[in-house]
User: Fold this.
Amino acid sequence: MTDRRSVYYTSSYEVTKNWKPNTKQTAVSISADSGVSQTAKEDQINLSLASTANFVPGDHVFIYDDTETHGEILQVQDVVQNGASSYLETVTDMTKDYTATNGGEAVLMSAFIRPGSSKLMSTIELNRLINEVEDEIDHRTGHAWRAVAVTDVHEFPDQSMNSIDWVDGLPIKLAHRKVRTLDTTAGDYIYINEGTGYTNKLGTWTEALNGDYWVDYVRGILYLKKFWRWHSRSALKFVYRYGETSVPYDIRRAATNLVIAQLLELEPTMAVHPGGGDLDAPKPYERADRLRAEAYQLIRDREEIRVIHR
Assistant:
């Protein structure tokens, strides 16, 4: 399944739920959609082509039927528009089959704010704020809970290689751990400086303990077993992706808090008007400060210890 989401650490649904808890969220009702049907795949919701146009990757849907009072919320990972075979792919499997008794039609709603003049903020604008917060969290922690592409440039080690290096491979300690599996189609490269320029060896070298190289994906170490010495300076340029495959609760909370703090500072009620209202109620900027302070404490607890390798 192709993951086409643009946001990972929080969502427009989660932000809106906490930012404007008393505001009714806009729903795109497709209860009359004759294309809605039960599917054998638990991560797939079959819809008509017209109804799939209401959703984009990263959106959340609220699904229920007349036999399920509460239903469940699922995040859209991909929207497949293929005529009568259109459907939504979801990140999390549905826990049950949704089959209504009134003609077998399920009921879905968009459970987040949609673009439009009467909405609080468009999904595109809100996702842009979320992306900014995700970048800030990655920078402050030195880690990521999504796939992030980076480039490491390494010198050829000055020290002489010992016997272990000849058996296990020359260890190149990377700047990040939790490296994603190397994939030429995902933009990963192993560039070797051969004098006239860099040559990509990924795809031609064999990855194996008894091959040309292998990777400790958990600790972030590249072991090279095919040695070279054309140049010492900037001898290796390694382009790879790193990041956890799931987002823990504290990172989700920190991201949500930081986005809401920005939204509160944009509210027109930021200015203090004399008279009227509850003067003891926390001002938007006070709430924003508290949310940001809690978020940064959560982020500090996740900061990586940086070790400089020479």
The chain has six helices and twelve strands. The longest strand covers residues 72-80.
